[in-house]
Amino acid sequence: MAVFIRDRHGELTRQLLQMTHVIRDRHQPCGVILAPSANINQQTLDQLESFVSQSETELAAKYLFDDHNMVFAMILEERKFAATHYTSLIVKDFLENHGLLQGQLVVASFPECGEPTESTVSQLIELAAKARGEEKEIRLFIEQPAHQGISSILIVDTDEVVREFVRLHLELEGYTVYEAKDGAEALAIYSEAVPDLVITELNLPIVDGYQLINKITKASANKGKVIVLTGKQLADHLNRSFELGAIDFVTKPFSISELQWRIKKLGEWR
Amino acid sequence: MITSTNIAINILYVLVACNAIFMVVVYAMKLKEVKTRRAFDQFQIKFKDYLTYIQAHLHSEERLRLPNIPMSQVERGFLQDWLNDMIESFTDTKQRQKLTLLCEDLGLIEYHMQRLGSGSYRAKVDAAYHLGCMRVGEAVPLLLKMLRQHKHDSSLFVIARAVAKCARDEHDVKQMVRSLLKHEKGFHDLLVDIIQESDIDQFALFTEFVQEEHPTLIMIGLTGLKEYSSPGVASAAYRLIDHEREEIQVRAVELYLNSSPFFPKNVVHKLLHHANGEIRLLTIQALSTLRNESFVNALKDSLQDEDKRVVHASAIALINLGQTGISALCTGALAYRGQEKGEWLQGIIEEEIKHLSTEPHDLDKLTRYNALLYAYEKTLGKKNRIYRVV
User: Is residue A145 one of the residues assigned to a domain?
Assistant: First the structure.
């Protein structure tokens, strides 16, 4: 169902809250996609609905456009986070091809990403409105409790796949994440951002992992700022890392859940 | 008339032509690499959202879906490489299975199975590598057939690794190992590394290999068991201490010393009187790390060993034991006074005194220094002190 709403202040929040609560009362998950866009009329909304239903034949969704905030919204019934994220790819494709997308899409699913309270929904809409003018990406929204001890992390690895994967999962956990592809870049970012934790590979160009651990340990009053995440598995590498001041040692291939758990525990000990 | 100048000029022409050809080839290769890199970068930009979708939902229960936009053959290849990296980077079996299911939905498994069955040799090896990454159990019979017929070169191990990754049970891995045994090139360390890629009960397999008669299988078993510590491992290794092959003896003793929770005196006695000097040395090194005073006499007896490496290791082990060990070492050195061995032992002690004197900030070393100096002066009667640290 495509609904065109002429929004007064707070109308979209009320609509979203009402719809998400109806779905929640049926004990079903509810997906939400929001995007800052150019002016969308009823006809375009109908076109979008038809475009999405070509790939998502069983999708039951409501399409809204708030012309006050210039935000497009979509509410998906019985859609968990993964399915909502996938639908957002199709929506993004349509909006981009029609020149309507004007910033980041924000994607969430309740209750997986949090409870659909008034403050959460307002936060979502605010995020979408603020995302205008930013790079046209998809931003995943998950409500996170504040972390103890560690809030920012620098990940240093030459492998782009590992870097991106770790960054994405830590960001979903609510951490601010910086990336570096070699030791020299890591030191530059470290001196500028001073993250609470560094996760590093040992095998790095320019400044290797050991030198990096040594420099960070010397530069920091707080010991135990470095977790080693490496493909090197010999006991010598482990011993040397600990001698230089690393707090933990994880070998590749690794489990992201285990790494997240270790970071959480480290934060609790601080 | 052919002159030597003409010959030299002709050779120069040939060299210049060769250089030009090589430059063209290198330039073409470089261009191809740049083109591939650019195409991969474009793929990453075009499919960035989809790749993020895969990474973000590896934990979810829902099956991963196919890209929402059409893909070319080249892009499909890039996605395959990217998925291979993802599969190899994570230990979580559930995540691996999800990615493998996605590969199946993308038609990648079917494509590589076809190449493995009917492609050129190069395509077959490439398909074997990809099927291995995707852990395709159905590929094992074809991979084993290929392995049996394969000559001994580096591709052999690509196929063997693929079998290990795809192995459905122990039987598949055993067949792979037996196929490789016919080459007999002493690559047991590499074979252990390959076996460790499989999802089977590796401990059971290595234990079984240790009980085999084939020496390479025994070596694979002993090397693989290094990762485990249990009394069962120690007793399996102990049975091989007197094996007819020296390399097996050494590997078995190494394993025994690493995995045994304690060393019975009769076993230590047996190892210290073993005909193989390497074994005696390994035993002394293990006793040295234990720092157990009950082995002082055994270590002192080893000062009589004919192998200088064993004597040196025994002397250091005695020094590390503290007062009792140091006294035993000085008494042992005194017994050889006037002989070459006595001078040498005295040299070891003096060297250690000199070394310890440089680290007075370390309390443990300072204590050992004082004890060693005291025992040395008392027993060997040197009047001139070498160093004194307060």
Answer: no
CATH number, domain containing residue A38: 3.30.70.270
A74-102: pLDDT as tens digits:
999 888 999 999 999 999 999 999 999 99
Q: Which residue of A has its CA nearest to B60?
A: A82
Chain B hits for A141, CB-CB cut-off 8 Å, are none
Mean pLDDT in residue range A1-14: 60
- Please check the confidence at residue B159 and state whether its pLDDT lies above 70: yes
The mean per-residue pLDDT over the stretch B35-56 comes to 93
List of chain B residues whose C-beta atoms are within 8 Å of the C-beta of residue A165: 55, 86, 89
Inter-chain residue contact B56 with A257, CB threshold 8 Å: no
User: Domain boundary residue among A119, A140, A161?
Assistant: A140
pLDDT at B95 over 70: yes
- What is the reported pLDDT for B168? 93
**Cβ pair B90:A92 closer than 8 A:** no
Contact residues for A60 (Cβ-Cβ < 8 A; gap 6+): A76, A77, A78
Which two three-digit tokens encode residue A219? 């530069």
Measured CA to CA, the distance from residue A128 to residue A133 in angstroms comes to: 11
- Residue B382 has a pLDDT of 56
| Across B189-213, average pLDDT | 91
CA distance A15 to A6: 12
Same domain, A156 and A238: yes
B55 near A CB under 8 A: yes
For residue A199, the enclosing domain spans 152-269
H/E stretch holding A155 reads: strand A152-156
Res. B77 pLDDT band, cuts 50 70 90 = very high
Cα A95 from Cα B16, distance rounded (Å): 58
**Could you tell me if the ipTM is greater than 0.85?**
yes
Asked if A138's CB is within 8 angstroms of B90's CB, the reply is no
B57 contacts in chain A (CB < 8 Å):
81-82, 85
Which residue does chain A place closest to B89, by CA atoms? A253
Query: Cα–Cα distance between B179 and B334 in angstroms, integer?
Result: 58
- Are residues A125 and A230 both part of a single domain? no
Interface test with A, best of B49, B78, B165 (most A CBs within 10 A): B49
Average pLDDT, rounded, for chain B: 88
**Could you tell me which of B213, B280, B215, B220 has the C-alpha nearest to residue B253?**
B280
Contact with chain A for residue B120, Cβ under 8 A: no
